[in-house]
Design a protein that fits this description.
76% of the residues lie in helices and 0% in strands. The protein is an all-alpha fold and 149 residues long. Helix 3 packs antiparallel against helix 4 and helix 3 runs parallel beside helix 7.
């Protein structure tokens, strides 16, 4: 899963979609998933950092910069389309499914199931062109990974 995202984001992000960095767009979706229940827990933020360093191969300084930008964008966002559009343009189907799995990992990080977080991911999945079946499989994989970590 992380290898596909690394390959995608290994190129210059500005080339893929000039008005918004794909790293920031994907990270903003991760932050919005964490915020969906109204609580941005430290464990959710830590999970996002883990994803940034593992999937996007970012060093700590870059990770903090991207996360800060994404948090600011998530706070001021009026919808998700601007972020999902960039992600959908830049990622192939398999990588979008991997991102959906990461969204589940973020919302599951606090150990609580929230209907608001579930609803957020149900809304985001079609915008990323991920069908319900793949969304359910992504959740199952994320739950299994969270149990083993």
């Amino acid at each position: 899963m992380f290898d596909t995202l690394k390959r995608l984001f290994g190129s210059d992000p500005a080339e893929a979609h000039p008005e918004i960095d794909p790293h920031v767009a994907a990270t903003t979706l991760l932050v919005e998933a964490a915020l969906a229940d109204g609580i941005y827990a430290d464990c959710e933020q830590d999970q996002i950092r883990t994803i940034l360093s593992g999937a996007f191969n970012m060093d700590e300084a870059r990770c903090e910069k991207v996360l800060a930008q994404a948090e600011e964008m998530a706070e001021t966002a009026i919808d998700h389309h601007r972020f999902t559009k960039v992600v959908k343009t830049c990622l192939d189907n398999q990588t979008r499914i991997a991102l959906l799995e990461q969204l589940w990992m973020v919302v599951l990080a606090d150990g609580e199931r929230s209907p608001f977080e579930d609803a957020f991911i149900r809304r985001i999945a079609p915008l990323l062109a991920v069908d319900d079946r793949e969304r359910a499989f992504a959740r199952s994989r994320a739950e299994a990974r969270m149990r083993t970590s």
